[in-house]
Amino acid sequence: MRSSILGLAAVLMLAPVAAQAQTGAYRSATVAPGKTTRIGMVSALKKDCGVGPLTDVKVVTAPKHGTLNVKAGKVKTPATFRCPNVETPVQGVFYQPNKGYMGSDEVKYEIKGLDGTTRQVTVQITVSDKPAAPAKDDGGSEL
Question: What Gene3D superfamilies does the database record attribute to this sequence (predicted)?
Answer without folding.
Answer: 2.60.40.3440
